[in-house]
Amino acid sequence: QVQLVESGGGLVQPGGSLRLSCAASGFTFSNYAVNWFRQAPGKERELVARISSAGGITNYAESVKGRFTISRDNAKTTVYLQMTGLRLEDTAVYYCKADVYWGQGTQVTVSS
Predict the structure, then answer these.
(1) Cα separations (Å) of 95 from 6, 20, 23, 76, 112?
(2) Torsions phi, psi of 69, nearest 5?
(3) In degrees to the nearest 10, what's the CA dihedral of 47, 32, 57, 48?
């Protein structure tokens, strides 16, 4: 069956870095664009970054441009989100999505 499994979240101080991974299985991963979303407590889920199926096109929310980088390795059926310069407001559960499928999310907490 289709699975998207996020990992790499955790607690980090402001200014720190984390790399999230989204490991996919059960479908032809290389055919699909992949999105990273996040949802903070009491807020709506928002799109953070998107990468095209071959990885040549990326898009970012304004709030993360210049700090986050999305990439993918189709041979490993994995998408990454490298996050640097983390801020308190980046605290959220981060989800990956491909086609109609969602992962279970990974918690990122930025706190001093």
Answers:
(1) 7, 10, 12, 18, 24
(2) -135, 125
(3) 10
Residue type, 108: V
What's the pLDDT tens digit per position in 4-15?
Answer: 999 999 999 999
Contacts of 59 (CB under 8 A, 6+ apart): 49, 50
The residue among 111, 112, 93 whose CA lies nearest residue 103 is: 93
Q: What is the pLDDT of residues 31-69, one digit of tens each?
A: 999 999 999 999 999 999 999 999 999 999 999 999 999
Select from 86, 91, 79, 95 the least CA-distant residue to 22: 79
The secondary structure of 32-76 as a DSSP string is S-EEEEEE-TTS--EEEEEE-TTS--EEE-TTTTTTEEEEEETTT
**Cα 22 from Cα 3, distance rounded (Å):** 10
Q: Computed from CA positions of residues 87, 15, 51, 105, in that sequence, does the dihedral angle turn out positive or negative? A: negative
Q: Which residue has the tokens 């991963």?
A: 29
Measure the CA–CA gap between 86 and 64, rounded to whole angstroms: 9
